[in-house]
Amino acid sequence: MNQVDASSFHEIGRSVRRKEDFRLLTGKGHFADDYNMPGQAWTVMVRSPHAHARIVRIDAAKARAMPGVLAVFSGADCAADGLRPFNHNAVPSTKYDMKLTGPGGGSVFVGRHMLLPADKARYFGEAVAMVVAESREQAEDAADAVAVDYEPLRFLERTEDAVVPGAPAVWDEAPNNVLVDAFFGDHAATERAFAAADHVIGHEFHVGRIMPLPLEPRAGLAHYDAASGNYTLYFSTGGPGIVRQRRQFAAALAIDQEKLRLVALDTGGNFGTKNRPYVEHALALWAARKLGRPIKYRATRHESMLTEYQGRDLATKVELAMRKDGRFLAMRAENVMNVGAHCVSLSPLAKGAGLITGSYDIPAATLRARGIFTNTVPNNVMRSSGRPEVTFAIERLIDMAAAEFGFDRIALRRQNLIRPEQFPYTNAVGSTYDSATFEANMDLGMKIADWGGYEKRRQEAAARGRLRGLGFANYIESSTGSPRERAEITVTPTGRVEVVLGTQPSGQSHETSFAQVAADLLCVPIDNVEIILGDTEVVKEGGGSHSGRSMRHAATVLSLAAPELIEQGKALAADILGVAPADVDFAAGRFVSTRANRTFDFLELAKEAQARGGVLKVVKDNEMHTPVFPNGCAVCEVEVDPATGRVHLTRYAAVDDVGRCINPMTVDGQTHGSIAHGVGEALFEQICLDPASGRPLTESFEEYGMPSSTTLPPLTTEIVEVLSPTNPLGIKSGSEGATAGAPAAIISGLVDALKDFGIRDIAMPATPLAVWQAIENAKAGSQANNKARHGSWKWRA
Amino acid sequence: MARVSIKVNGKDEACEIKPRTLLVEFLRDHLGLTGTHVGCDTTQCGCCIVLIDGKAVNSCTMLAVQANGADVTTIEGLADGGKLHPMQAAFREHHALQCGFCTPGFIMSALELVAKKKNPTEADIRYGLLGNMCRCTGYENIIKAVKAGAEAMARVG
Ligand code: FES
Ligand code: FES
Q: Which of A29, A702, A706 sits opposite B100 (nearest CB)?
């Protein structure tokens, strides 16, 4: 793709302070719970107290008679009104996605996400009825009074239990609970390479179930106007953005999408969990029509933690074949994703599938990828979905191979990295990486981490009785996402450049960084640029914000729109000056002609346009499928207190190749947050179910390990800009990559700290108890440490 | 119903409210001051922190009637028209907010911290902010901002 001339950029690449901040710093944001309307009623859900149970009968008579109660609705009412299950587009389907299939190569049965199920509750906390009342307290009290008869069924938490003969079926349509079973790579070549290998190392890992946990619980206000038949939902969201969610909500409600307006202005964090529609929002819209009242919903934190879409939960078995000089020859992997009670996204499985060989030149590989239903909360994309899982597997495996066969772990990586001259590089499962300088990333990472000074720090820690460890991981991830984006640029006579786009930020600074791009492409002052997002009244097309797509798609469509707007400007200027359009140039932000003295910038020209009854405006659509591959590495140092098992992260450095960086300040900020998610996963975060009842035990911040200001270390980050040849500005993505590398780097450091005990693996999260237990096991001579936690999977069925 | 009279951001607010009304509900629902946020129900996230007579308090864990007669400052009460308070300005300058949901609570905690100790160290700040959660920033820039905000406040006295 043609690269844009960057020589005149002065906003792109600068740490411009954010346009968003004034409103957010003064309490003037518009978050989901900030909307209220006169006459609003409240809805509260009745939730299943069983992880798996048949719904026998719902008796709402008592609840209906309680003060303030306006209605109680169940799944039967939804069915009677013709409400439909959500279509989540769960199977990734863009051109470059790995193609997942059902067992035997057939289509994938994803379950049915009914707004309220009429047959069964399939996970603890699933909504089975809704109550609407004048106040939230009245609705809460009435929800407690709805009597639901359940017939509890055996429930499934772990995928390995879901596939054994005789296991209960979450869905009758998938009697063995398998929805995906797909194979990738060259089986024969891989087997040959394994047969000829000098060394083979293999291991099983389980990257556990965690929560995205944005701090803003989901909420919304639904309104129905009987006169026009129009619905409006004020809420906060992310991911696919309001254009797709509008289609999804309209389809579930069986209404024309033109009748539905979605407004989502400020979103208090997302990280994937708001990437799929929620039943409560659809139900509020439905009830608003049925009852003729605005309906408000606000989840408690407790409810959010019970029912918000979760992430990760991939079991993987990996094997690596090597020559005795350390050259990697082939890889085999079997990945199993626990999709939960119904499938909202297979993106983690597919994304990971394309990246199993990581940053390394491995000539042959095969992968079997499976998706399994269980009675757990639906599993969705979560920041860097799928990539931390496979990065963990390959990076940990390389550390293990180094330890087992006597290689230096850094040298072994260097020897096998894909070299810059090999790009574009197609890996053994068919993903084509665009560009990277992996070894230079490593050098930079080790430099900013002061790798050379580590030994001194280790000795100093040892003198204090602490075990210090040094961890390292490379990563590569893929950014794809919704292929369509639209930019609508209007230069107003009041001197504003209004840019409408269909992305859906939740803290990623689009109003600032997109304005930087527009300002440079049109040579207008950044202060005059206003980015408009988040309201389907104005946003008619666009793919939202997920999979690191936003800046790449926005900048690409802007760079296609800008020349058209400049042509319009030239034509208008020519008209005013009475010269031919070919005689007008656009130079240094001004429309000039050698045949006239007068010149204009865009803002002056917009006034002229108005005076002539015209407008400077362009609408440009773009479709772009080619993925990009952000990449980088992480170095971390940990200290373990062997008496308590407490792990202290002491240093952390990350290098991220994001392609062209528009705003280093915000990209660094994204990297910091991205690291924090990886730290949480590695050390603290874990969803626990009571094995007897299936009830989640992690229902509040008291039980769930959120990283805090004292558990995160100071972070050192560097941005690398290897321009991607796939789009005009050379953009890759920043914000998800550091999450991909962090868990592997941290566990690498931890295992390094514990290596004298013979420990070569430790399961995540490495809580003080887990670490202390591992040390005690090692002292007692047990090998339990080095067996994967979910080691009972029968691989290769 | 109970009658409360609370000074909020310098303005006397007198209202009839249900006795069970939490202070945060009073601020958000009765006064429309939606800058104070609710992120949890177990007094842990700190999104709801306001200053009551200069002390940082979780407004989700206090009844409005308990604040009767008190002087409450919320995030809306800090800027001087278009001019940000030095701590707000430091958050902007150091990119200490992304989604901004946690930010009002952090700023209120930071103000109490600085009131207690003029020039806090990095460790003081990290411990001082343990009652505030942020899921976006990894805390890195928040720590820097609070340090810079403290210095700026010391400069202006
Ligand atoms: S809302 Fe979380 S501490 Fe108050
Ligand atoms: S900025 Fe989003 S939670 Fe802190």
A: A29
Confidence at B9, pLDDT banded by 50, 70, 90: very high
Range of the domain at B70: 2-75
B79 has pLDDT over 80: yes
Q: Are A274 and A310 in contact (CB under 8 A)?
A: no
The single-letter code of the amino acid at A557 is: V
- How many angstroms separate the CA atoms of A222 and A233, rounded? 5
Kindly tell me if the per-residue pLDDT of A797 is higher than 50. Answer: no
Q: How far off is chain B from A707, nearest CA to CA, in Å?
A: 8
At the second CATH level, the architecture of A386-479+627-786 is 2-Layer Sandwich (3.30)
Distance from CA of A231 to the nearest CA of B (A): 24
CB-based contact A623:A512 (threshold 8 Å): no
Assigned CATH topology for domain A21-28+481-623: Aldehyde Oxidoreductase; domain 4 (3.30.365)
Residue A257 above 60 pLDDT? yes
Measure A120 CA to ligand 2 centroid, in angstroms: 37
Q: State how many domains chain B has.
A: 2
Residue B134 near ligand 2, beta carbon < 6 Å: yes
Name the band, by pLDDT with cuts 50, 70 and 90, for residue A783: low
User: Which tokens in the block code for residue A321?
Assistant: 């074949």
**How far is A597 from A381, CA to CA, in rounded Å?**
57
| Ligand 1 atom 1 nearest Cα | B38
Sign of CA dihedral A560, A566, A572, A575: negative
CB–CB contact A18 B95 (8 Å): yes
**Among residues B49, B75, B101, which one ends one of the domains?**
B75
| Disruptive mutation site among B24, B30, B85, B98 for chain A (greatest number of A CBs within 10 Å) | B98
User: Is the residue at B42 inside a domain?
Assistant: yes
Q: Select the residue from B21, B42, B99, B121 to test the A interface by mutation, using most A Cβ atoms within 10 A.
A: B99
B58 Cα nearest atom in ligand 1 = 4
| Over residues A675-691, mean pLDDT | 97
The protein residue whose alpha carbon is closest to atom 4 in ligand 2 is B134
Interval B28-54 mean pLDDT:
97
Are residues B57 and B95 both part of a single domain?
Answer: no
A32-153+213-307 CATH choice from 3.90.1170.50, 3.10.580.10, 1.10.10.10, 3.30.450.40: 3.90.1170.50
On whether both B37 and B96 belong to a single domain, the answer is no
Domain with CATH 3.30.365.10 in chain A: 21-28+481-623, 386-479+627-786
Looking at the fold, whether B17 and B67 belong to one and the same domain comes out as yes
Which residues, including other chains, have CB under 8 Å from residue A463's CB and lie 6 or more apart?
Answer: none
Task: For residue A296, give the nearest of A158, A456, A135, A140 by alpha carbon.
Answer: A135
Q: Which of A793-797, B59-63, B112-116 has the lowest mean pLDDT?
A: A793-797
**Crossing angle, helix B86-93 and helix B103-116, to 10 degrees?**
120
A613-668 confidence digits (pLDDT tens)? 999 999 999 999 999 999 999 999 999 999 999 999 999 999 999 999 999 999 99
Query: In A, which residues are within 8 Å of B74 by CB distance?
Result: 27
Q: Tell me whether residue B81 is in a domain.
A: no
